[in-house]
Amino acid sequence: MFLLVEYLACTIHPPTGAILVMALESFGKRVQRERKEQGYSQEELADEVGVSRTYLSQIEQGKAQNLSLRLAQKLGTKLGIESPYQEERSSEGDDNIPESLRKFADEDEIPESDLRMLADIEYRGEQPQRVDQWRIVYNVIKNATEGDS
Predict the structure, then answer these.
(1) d(CA 113, CA 111)
(2) Options 1.10.3720.10, 3.90.550.10, 1.10.260.40, 3.40.30.10; which CATH number does 17-88 get?
C-alpha cells in the first residue's frame, strides 16, 4: 500500500506572472458561480474545503494570496470546474494524455477533470503504462478521498 500511495506523487508546475493573476480572477468567478448554482453558502463551502469564509471570499474576488495547488484542486473537484493550474495545461490539448489512460477513461467513463488529474501523476518520472494500472491508481485516489466529502 505504501508504494501505491508513494506512486501518487505528482509534479505540477503552475503558471506564473500575469497569466496566473488572470487565471485566478477567472477561477474565482467560476467558484462563486458554481457555489451559488449548487446551493452552497460561502460558509458551507469553506468548511467543506477547509478554509475560512473570508479566504473563500478572497478567492471568489480573485484577490487570494498564494492560492495553493491543493486548495485549487479541492475547490475544482468539489464544484466540478478546472483549477487555474489545469487551465494552462488544458490549452496544450490531449498531447500529454497517454493512450492507456485515454482508454481507461473511456472504458470507465471518468470525468474530464479526473482524467487531467491522472495525466499529471508521475512517480520517479514514470507513469502507469497499462489500463489496469491506471484503474488501480484512480481507485486508490477515490478511496483515499471519499472520506473528505
Answers:
(1) 5
(2) 1.10.260.40
16-69 pLDDT tens trace:
444 455 677 788 899 999 999 999 999 999 999 999 999 999 999 988 878 888
For 98, phi then psi, to 5°, come to -60, 150
Domain with CATH 1.10.260.40 in the chain: 17-88
Summarize pLDDT for 46-59 with one digit per residue, the tens. Answer: 999 999 999 999 99
Q: Provide the residue type at 133 as one letter.
A: Q
Terminal-residue alpha carbon distance, the chain? 22
How does DSSP classify residue 138? Answer: H
- Taking the C-alpha atoms of residue 128 and residue 138, their distance in angstroms, rounded to an integer, is 11
Q: What whole-number distance in Å separates Cα of residue 106 and Cα of residue 101? A: 9
Give dist(CA 128, CA 54) in Å, integer: 40
